[in-house]
Structures are given as structure tokens and as C-alpha cells.
Amino acid sequence: MRKRLSWATSLDWLMGLVALCALIAVLQTFIIGKHYIIPSVLLIFSVLFGNLAWYALQGARWAKLVNFWCGVLLTSHGFFALFWSVKYRAVLGDYFEGVGIVVTLLVFFTTFLYAKYNRLHVTS
Asked: How far is CA 86 from the centre of its chain?
């Protein structure tokens, strides 16, 4: 299986990016922040999301299903944040609605197309 960036691997690469960001956070909190407990918790996330990305890119259906449901939860989070978020609204100010709607729709369509191209809705 080729591991190129496409709609069929979009959420797989997103999970890989999350794993990379968590790994960078581990290094930052351990080396710069001089914390020792927080990096071990962040390391769990980097290993978890890294394995999801790896196995999904290898074609494991279970990993693709988990990535799909992560996309559904992320879309739901973005949708509900449009109505009830205080922190995101404070950070983005007047741009919150525009950025929030675009990001939520982007994650929604990415998740939808990921499920379509990987045939996750087909049971047999």
C-alpha cells in the first residue's frame, strides 16, 4: 500500500501529526520545563496516536475505524465550540466564527471523505 497523502489517508497523517506534536511537547516539558511527570503522560499520547497512524497507514481496518471516530469527535467538538466556547473566542476574538466554521467544516469533510474512500460504512 502506498502511503501518500490522499483522502484515504488524511486522518492517518493527522494522527501522525498529533503524535509528532505530543513528542515535541514531551521534549519541551522535559528539557526546557524541567518537569518529569507531565512528559510521561504526554509520551502516552504520542505512542497512542503514533500507533494509530502507523497501523492505519498499513491498512489495519480497526485503526482506520478509530481514526474515523476521532474525526467524528473532533468535528463534534468544533461544532459545539462554535456555540459555547469561551477560551477559543477569547483567543481569536472577532475572527472566531470565521475560523471556527472553516475548521469545523474542513474536519467534517475530511472525516466524511476518509470514511468514503476507506469504505468504512460497508460491513462486508
From this structure: 22
User: pTM of the full predicted structure?
Assistant: 0.86
Q: From CA 96, how far away is CA 19, in angstroms rounded?
A: 26
Categorize the per-residue pLDDT at 2 as very low, low, confident or very high, splitting at 50, 70 and 90.
Answer: low
Flag whether 122 is in a domain.
no
pLDDT digits (tens, 9 = 90+) for 78-103: 999 999 999 999 999 999 999 999 99
CA distance 48 to 45: 5
**Is residue 85 in some structural domain?**
yes
Answer yes or no: is pLDDT of 39 > 90. Answer: no
Helices and strands (H, E) in the chain, number of each type: 5, 0
Does residue 1 sit within a domain?
no
Looking at residue 92, its pLDDT comes to 93
Burial letters 29-66, b for 16+ CB under 10 A, else e: bbeeeeeeeebeebbebbeebbebbbbbbeeeeebbeb
Q: Is residue 95 part of a domain?
A: yes
State how far the Cα of 51 lies from the Cα of 100, in Å rounded to an integer.
29
